[in-house]
Design brief:
Shape: globular
Strand content: 5-15%
CATH topology of the largest domain: Rossmann fold
CATH class of the largest domain: Alpha Beta
Number of domains: 2
Number of strands: 5
Largest sheet: 5 strands, parallel
Radius of gyration: 20 Å
């Protein structure tokens, strides 16, 4: 595991809280008890904050609402559709509900709807092989082909492991084709960082996010203030986005 992966796993709310509690236990044993107590309270408060639906609705909603979802047939016609690999909360229709394959909406489905609506004649799929097997780009290309998209309308960019690399490597491919206006497809939560990254390359992207996932479910017993393990687990995506935007800004990538 490299340093980036280690840090990405450490910032997960539950992981960070456990780490802080271990640190507090060590400090308590060496008689730094006031410091230990403060760290322990902070750790418990942090995990509790991210287990509350209202926290995700606020923090995640700020990102998802930056580029509102628009139906495929209402998007502008551009030169190409670019779809980024990955998923958020397993592509669940709603962040706060159990996974249901019949209602899950993937980025590929969003790109397919744009293509079928005639929004662009070309789809670029971007993503490397994260586990050493087939690349995300290849798997997305296969999924599109199975849905009837002709092979000549699909271009694979299979070297990128990060959002920045998605943008840089895809821009190189598109410039060779004299393309600079694109419809950018990713999750609504990821869209602010993705848009900023692609704009930095000189491309002119239009946001075409998948439908938002961090919305109040239609459950009569839904509680904004009841801690929930599913919410806590999914909140890692929100934390990752805010940290990612900070790191990208500090490094001049957005």
């Amino acid at each position: 595991m490299n340093v980036n992966n280690l840090l990405a796993n450490l910032i997960v709310p539950l992981n960070l809280s456990v780490t802080l509690l271990l640190l507090a236990a060590i400090l308590f044993m060496v008689r730094w008890r006031k410091t230990a107590a403060l760290i322990a309270v902070g750790a418990v408060g942090w995990v509790l904050f991210w287990s509350l639906p209202t926290s995700s609705l606020w923090a995640g909603g700020l990102l998802e609402q930056r580029y509102p979802y628009i139906q495929a047939d209402r998007q502008p016609v551009e030169q190409a559709i670019v779809v980024l690999g990955g998923n958020t909360a397993n592509n669940r229709d709603n962040w706060f509900e159990p996974y249901d394959r019949s209602t899950a909406v993937s980025r590929i489905e969003t790109a397919l709807k744009l293509y079928e609506a005639g929004r662009a004649p070309l789809i670029v799929v971007s993503g490397a092989a994260l586990d050493g097997g087939q690349s995300e780009a290849h798997m997305m290309a296969m999924a599109l082909s199975n849905q009837g998209v002709p092979s000549h309308a699909i271009i694979q960019e299979d070297h990128s492991f990060t959002t920045r690399e998605n943008a840089v490597y895809t821009a190189e491919v598109l410039r060779r084709l004299n393309i600079d206006r694109i419809l950018l497809v990713t999750s609504a939560l990821h869209m602010p960082r993705a848009m900023a990254s692609f704009q930095k390359t000189g491309l002119t992207p239009t946001a075409a996010p998948s439908p938002p996932q961090i919305v109040v479910p239609e459950q009569p017993d839904f509680s904004f203030w009841s801690p929930d393990l599913r919410t806590l687990d999914a909140s890692r995506s929100i934390v990752k986005e805010y940290l990612g935007m900070l790191v990208y800004w500090l490094r001049g990538w957005i």
